[in-house]
Specification:
With 430 residues, the protein is of the alpha+beta class. It has 4 domains: 2-93, Rossmann fold (3-Layer(aba) Sandwich); 125-180, ATP-grasp fold, A domain (Dna Ligase, domain 1), CATH 3.30.1490; 191-322, 2-Layer Sandwich (D-amino Acid Aminotransferase, Chain A, domain 1), CATH 3.30.470.20; 330-429, Phosphoribosylglycinamide synthetase, C-terminal domain (Glycinamide Ribonucleotide Synthetase, Chain A, domain 4, Alpha-Beta Complex). The protein contains 14 helices and 22 strands. The strands form 5 sheets. Strands 10, 11, 14, 15, 16, 17, 18, 21 and 22 form a 9-stranded antiparallel sheet that branches. A 5-stranded parallel sheet has the order 3-2-1-4-5, sandwiched between helices. Helix 7 packs antiparallel against helix 8 (159-170). It is globular and about 60 Å long. 49% of the residues are buried. The model has no long low-confidence stretch (mean pLDDT 95). Bound molecules: adenosine monophosphate (AMP) and glycine. Residues 150, 212, 226-227, 285, 289-290, 292 line the site of glycine.
């Protein structure tokens, strides 16, 4: 099979490696990719938003399957355009991607189909938003409706700051068009986890849980980021909890999307919170998590390309019961440029990756990397490396990851040293 992967992050490096290892893969292209992805695919110089040229490339090369990594091309309708051209695609249509692209759409869907989530209101008018906010308890959550690169959520501790946040969003100051509509939402208190499920619109393939670490600072403090580290499975996952997530949240969503005439295909990434032990939906994403995808790919023991292709072709029922996972947990720790998620230096030198080669079951996934004119590895983004390892238990995985991080020589980089803290304080070896 000829495969084209869209994206350039650590998530895409993990997907690229898994696809390239498939016995069915004859060629793998990645647009635009990164230095790490180049080691297992041919890079194509097309940006992820350039729908027209992606479709043209896929047609010219007679690509069998396009795998879309990030949300932006999904929301722009890349999957629809590829399907119109007769090309199989892993990733939802533009209408189905509203599950990520419009928080209001998702909230209304949850309400209509009784999917547990926070109480909310949708507003485009500041006067109405203000009147609603004034009647709520604090803390209260204000969200931009559209895509805001993970930054469109404000948890306000008092009514005044909630109104200021609503004003900022609705005036277009903080998130441009993405904030033209806002959601005002009840604050939910509890432990969070990420849950993944593949679906072809009918059949569901549970695809494991993970624990992300969104805050930049140790002890989950400081600014929100795209994710500073993740491990799989999530520490609170049990067969009972998984059953609740599937029957109360994932299955009703898949059938609701079918009933609404926009069946969802691809990966549903549910951001969940346990309120008094019961799972509630915070939000959906229509793609794999980054960095959650990295530990998932380390644990998967089946052929990822077969799984992606069956999902794209509506044949998940054929392979659902054949997919195998390692029971061993895996952990990814993100090395970011000092200053991230605010401003940071680019083109700083990174050395020593090759000195980690003897650590078993360890992969260093690349995100914001490039080669400078002298061919040296440098950073061009904020999140730069995803150091990922599998171990007999989480502590072993963690020790391998930090051993590698201590070998890597990047004076301008940093990472959180406490990834996995919730699981590892609960039990030293779980
Ligand atoms: P999101 O971008 O929707 O995942 O939100 C980012 C983060 O904000 C989540 O991971 C939660 O920690 C927090 N959050 C969002 N909505 C709520 C809510 N209704 N109650 C409590 N925390 C929330
Ligand atoms: N790790 C969070 C995300 O991918 O949105």
């Amino acid at each position: 099979m000829k495969v084209l992967l869209i994206g350039s992050g650590g998530r895409e490096h993990a997907l690229a490696l898994a696809i390239s290892e498939s016995k069915h893969c004859s060629s793998l292209y990645c647009a635009p990719g990164n230095v790490g992805i180049e080691s297992c695919s041919e890079l194509v110089d097309i940006e992820v938003e350039d729908i027209e040229n992606i479709v043209k490339f896929a047609k010219d090369k007679v690509i069998d399957l396009v795998v879309i990594g990030p949300e932006v091309p999904l929301v722009l309708g890349l999957a629809d355009k590829l399907q119109e051209a007769g090309i199989d695609v892993f990733g939802p249509s533009k209408l189905a991607a509203r599950l990520e692209g419009s928080k209001g759409f998702t909230k209304d869907l949850c309400k209509k189909y009784n999917i547990p989530t926070a109480a909310y209101g949708r507003f485009t008018d500041i006067k109405q938003a203000k009147a609603f906010i004034e009647k709520q308890n604090v803390p209260i959550v204000i969200k931009a409706d559209g895509l805001a690169a993970g930054k469109g959520v404000i948890i306000a501790e008092d009514i005044n700051s909630a109104i200021v946040a609503a004003e900022d969003m609705l005036s277009g100051n903080s998130f441009g068009k993405a904030g033209a509509e806002i959601i005002v939402e009840e604050f939910m208190e509890g432990a969070e986890l990420s849950y993944f499920a593949l679906t072809d619109g009918k059949t569901i393939l549970p695809f494991m849980s993970a624990q992300d670490h969104k805050r930049v600072g140790e002890g989950d403090t400081g600014l929100n980021t795209g994710g500073m580290g993740a491990y799989s499975p999530a520490y609170m996952m049990t067969p009972e909890l998984e059953k609740k997530i599937l029957t109360r949240i994932i299955e009703p969503t898949v059938s609701a999307m079918q009933k609404e005439g926009c069946p969802f295909t691809g990966v549903l990434y549910a951001g969940l919170i346990l309120v008094d032990g019961e799972p509630k939906l915070i939000e959906y994403n229509a793609r794999f998590g980054d960095p959650e995808c990295q530990p998932l790919m380390m644990r998967l023991q089946s052929d990822m390309l077969e799984i992606l292709y069956a999902t794209a072709q509506g044949r998940l029922d054929e392979i659902r019961d054949l997919v195998k996972w390692s029971d061993d947990p895996a952990m990814c720790v993100v090395m970011a440029a000092k200053g991230y998620p605010e401003s940071y230096k680019k083109n700083t030198l990174i050395n020593g990756l090759e000195r980690t080669a003897d650590i078993q079951d360890l992969v260093i996934f690349h995100a914001g990397t490039a080669k400078n004119e002298s061919g040296q590895l440098v950073n061009i983004g904020g999140r730069v490396l995803g150091v990922t390892a599998k171990g007999e238990n989480l502590l072993e995985a963690k020790n391998k990851v930090y051993r590698a991080i201590d070998i890597i020589d990047w004076p301008d980089g940093f990472c959180r040293r406490d990834i996995g803290w919730q699981a590892l304080t609960k039990s030293r070896t779980s």
